[in-house]
Protein 1
Amino acid sequence: MSRLDVDRVCSVTNANFDRILSVVVKYLGESRVGGCVCEKCVKSLIADALNVLPTHYYADQTREQAVGSPWVLVENAVAETVEKHQARVCKRLAGIEG
Ligand SMILES: [Zn+2]
């Protein structure tokens, strides 16, 4: 049995990450994201939007078919998450954490 190369095993990719990221960046550029846009809040927004979509990871990064969810679902996931994000209180701005 060969020794497990953890770095290689941990290179699985969320098939929706690039799509969600591009839509969030578009929303930020159009100032469509209300509420706090600090790094931590934007990361939470991205994570929450990813969690709206069906889980889709792949291990082989050369796989052509691993493109993620349809764009309409990605757009809807971001829109839904942005709406919730606007009501979210930034812990950093509220002084709860540094
Ligand atoms: Zn924030």
Protein 2
Amino acid sequence: MEKKQSDNILSLHGDEKKKKVFRSIIKELFPVELLIKIDEISRQHDIDNNSKTPEIIELLHQYNVPFEPLGNGTNRYGILVNGYVVKIALDRMGKIDNQREFKYSKMLYPSVVKVYECATTGLVATFEYVTIFTLDDFYSYQEEMRPILREISENFLVGDIGISTDNYVNWGIRNDESICILDFAYIYSLSYKGFKCTCEDEGTLQFDNDFVFLKCPMCGKKWSFSDIRKRISKADEINEIGDISKIGYILHKSEEILVENPEFSPHDFKKPKKNRKDKHNNHKGHTVTYDTSEEGQKNALEKLNNIMEEYKNEQEKKTHGKQNCKSRRSFGGIK
Ligand SMILES: [Zn+2]
């Protein structure tokens, strides 16, 4: 991973190099052993996701992670840690969801929550915390939701966030009362693949006014988002996301000083509103990935094991018999 870091440095010009402290909550509070155990749970196929949650909760307690439970999504379990949301993947799809949100948050912020960091495998990711919509919020904010949805749908196909009582819990409010989408895992870039009807004319599908159903302009067939999602292959899912370690800083410990790379900051897809107060924004909008795997989903466990080996060797070298800190461990040692 050294290579990647120096690539980033080379892409900046001489005097413009700016260094900054980057923090990783995952590195700080989730030791490698814990991540491996969570990963093992996420790979269990004989139990459903709801039954995986108690096992994860037990592990989090065991490793002294200071958390409050937020709840179960379909493929992920959400917790609140030091004012940030951490989403833990419960299965392979949950990992893809984290990767997807990490990748597209940069382009969609502030219409969506900020995603600060994501394990390369997608196992865990750290998000901005916002207050989830109540049903009343849903009714009073509909006219603000519509322009956000219209703008996003120019470039993306996003499911489960349209104006419907089925989707309001995927929206939230920040402290400055701006609204945003907090769950946008079902997002697909239109530039990656147009979504066409199966009819002879292959019409490009378009959302209805509430962004809930899609319609073929040629034959008039109405499509639900889940119908379309079923047509997307696993290979396409993985290809579209690509290697997320190339779109964020790579941290080897919980706090690290790195050269800034403007490409890793949110893009100007939409200008942030003025006076945006974001008390949880300690990372200044930068995103962080880390090197648990180079090949996406493949071999993640093997890679984790390698990292753990490296970590052990490093610790042995470093401490030379000195006592290791028992409860707080990270890959590269703690400052
Ligand atoms: Zn059609």
Protein 3
Amino acid sequence: MQIDRNITLLALSSVIVLALILILGTSLTHSRRVDLRENRFLQTIEKYKQMGLLENDLMNDRTLRYRLSLATLDYSEKKTFAVVKSELKKQQALLLQEPDNVERLLSLKEYVTALASRMASNSVFNGRVTVNETPQKNHLNILFLSSDPDNLLTGFEDISCAFTGTSNVVLCNSKTINRTLEDFDRVSENFSTAIATLDSDGSLTINSLANGAILKQLLKQNFLTWLLGHEIGHVILHGNKVNSGSMPLHFDFVYDDKEREADAFVVHAVRADNSLQAAFPVILLEFIEQRYHKIYQEQYGSSAMVFPARNSPVEQISITATSYSMPLLVRAMSLMDQSIHENSKALNQATYSVIDGKLAYVGSYKFTDYYEFLKTRVHIVEKPSIQSSRVALCFLIFGMVIALALLAYSQLHRKGHGEYK
Ligand SMILES: [Zn+2]
């Protein structure tokens, strides 16, 4: 009896020791593998840098004229135009005292650096952001590449940006991004954005012709806020450890829980920044309208778009959404829902900016009630993803196996009874 117990104890402890060795061994080889992967990754980036593949032309192009909004104005309390004007004048006097605040046009690199620094400021990467430089340890590193000959990232040619899961590096394909930015140059209508400049005589001017160029620029920078914020969200929320060895996390491929979390991060990061939180939802509504009208035209033809349908579309558009093909409109609407949920006055804000030497304000002339109406004009057809189809198939096969087993059992049972008879 005593010997039996000793043997059992011995067997049990050896099993535990073996299991511990196994766990420790696997984690050590795993971390060595991760280190090796990281070294190889950084060496490749260094090689790319020497080959001139870091995209510096696009990044340093000052003709892009990105502007950071300077301050915010809440006009939700049913302020009259005269009140807004007098507030603007006060603001103008204040702004002009600070030379730094007068028209700051940034290159893409300066804009991305400022944007990423703001969005990462409440994380461990506060003050630790690099853009198109040799990646640094414990930093958030964003790299714009023109090509990826050594295949650092699967499917690089088709992606805009992705979190690689290594060295906190976000890789962006400057060609794809450039194409996306050029798409905004084709925007020909302004659906909801109010842009007005304050003249020296105190009058507010809406220059529609000049505003077209500003609107395109605002749409571009809002999209970059979303795109980069999404990737920064992946780095902060999902990190190297979670993602090492698995697929890189993209902006524009499979849309699953991690993607939803990264999009939600954008809303939180924007909300935490005074001028971003006033600028982002306003231009997001414009983006939603641009997308909405494009689909409306495709489904009903341009004749249906004549005024007043422009402001109150009669027909409902229908769009299909799956996790493998999630339309940007659906994602943008989900960002808007979250923005309004966190701040019911998200659309009742304006930002100050300096446009062509004049103080300007950018806001929306459509508000939450309009957005809620627009939502009723969108019919989202949700189709099960391939993943859930796979799960369904597994269940089906499992069910069939059980059914067959039951059938076989009942057959055997009947046969058994027959023999007894
Ligand atoms: Zn993503």
Protein 4
Amino acid sequence: MLNGQARNKFLIECGQAMAGRPFFLEAQDGGPRSRRVKSIVEARQTLKPSYAHDLLEAKQQLQGKMQVLEETAAEAIEAADVCRKDASNVRQSTEALITVGEVREADNLALVRETSDLKQELRKARHVAHELEIAVRCAICCSKRADTVLMPCKHVCCCQTCWARVSEENNMLAPCPICRVPVQGWIQMRV
Ligand SMILES: [Zn+2]
Ligand SMILES: [Zn+2]
């Protein structure tokens, strides 16, 4: 350890030798720290060119990577735009298909209702045809079509064969089977 006088002398010498240097003030704290500061400064001066070179290389590499990343990001944005447009087209197509499907479903329902109505009408028409078929059959033989108009009542209820036989059996005085009015003559219809 330096005594007070020697210490002051040392500080003055240091101040003269190191005035203006960055670690000048550090020398006031004592020997070990000033030596450490000095060694750090020297190391920095030695390593600075090498670090600068490494930093420049790293910077260039980073710039290159940044450029690649920016290009990749631009491509990704472009691809995302394309995907967005595709998705929009798909959505529009889907909506159009749903509309077409709804229209077809409505058409199908209408067709089902129409078919049901037509089947019902067909059943009615067959029933009417059956009734007519029965109505125009001969009331005597029930097999041939009634084609004989009885006069004067004009009822049509039997075939010519049956009426000829009935009329002959009754000496041409048979009454009409429907209204019982005496038949004076008969006409065969041409159907
Ligand atoms: Zn008959
Ligand atoms: Zn009659």
